[in-house]
Amino acid sequence: MPPNVDPRPEKPHTLTTKPRAMPRECGKPVRTDDPMARHGRVIAGTHDVADGSGGERPARNNADQAVRRDPPWRDAPHDRVDRAAPGVRGRWSHGAHTAARGADLIKALVFDFDGVILETETPAFETWSEIYREHGHELPRERWVENIGASAWPFDALEHLASLVAAPFDHDAINARREARKIELVATLETMAGVREYLRDARRLGLRTAVASSGSDAYVSGHLARLGLRDSIDVVVCRDHVARGKPFPDLYLRAIEELGVGGTEAIAFEDSPNGIAAAKAAGLRCVAVPNPITSTLDLSAADVRLDSLGALVLEELIARFR
Predict the structure, then answer these.
(1) pLDDT band at residue 69 under the 50/70/90 scheme
(2) How far apart are CA 225 and CA 85, in angstroms?
(3) Which of 135, 143, 172, 223 has the maximal Cβ count within 10 Å?
(4) What global pTM score does this model have?
């Protein structure tokens, strides 16, 4: 959201977080003589079906428990570790795999909002592009993308357009018209691929969840409520709540503090260099999930890149960080 539409208040707001969810009770211990369970562990309820449907099916032998075996790469030879699934790119090298065995367990997921949960980046760009074309100009994409993920925008599209137009230019009227058009488009959007499945699986696995966004609390929480996701998120941290936004780490530091986890115990999901820089500066693992606007940007600072959250199920992603 443009800063002139939703200014940051002078004093940080107080966050209200939901009580920490207690882990679900596990099932009965796994029989060590059961070949299906020898390398597995028990989780409650159901297990995912890797058929692309995003659904679940009951455990084969017992409705109260299911055995989840460790992914094959956990104990695979190192020459197989780097083989990623389609749509997955990452630094799964021999050294990273070895070091990961001693790493902290993942306890939380922290999502950016714009471009990760909701694909608002395209409407934001296209609505300004429409205004520019009405005045006989093209919005410079390479300048626009500098703003993505940042709380303070280095590129002011409105002022830039005003500098190109010789005729009288009504800043307020043009900005209001563009903002109304963006709101209209964003109100029709559904969550991006894999988001609901990741939130569902996080709850099943006992992981805490948060949103760390450069948008305002009213904007982010409003859309989470509209999408029916607010109850799936334990903590929402927005630019209203911190002194500095992305690319500074403040949003992520506040998020993990509220979640009660350490930086290496959380995975951040980001779509922009600014967001990735913020997450890494706060010590989180980071997964880049680009959208059509950010897909050409340099996201190499992330630990892994997914074409979408639908490209890899959550448990497999977490296993790769161990």
Answers:
(1) very low
(2) 33
(3) 223
(4) 0.68
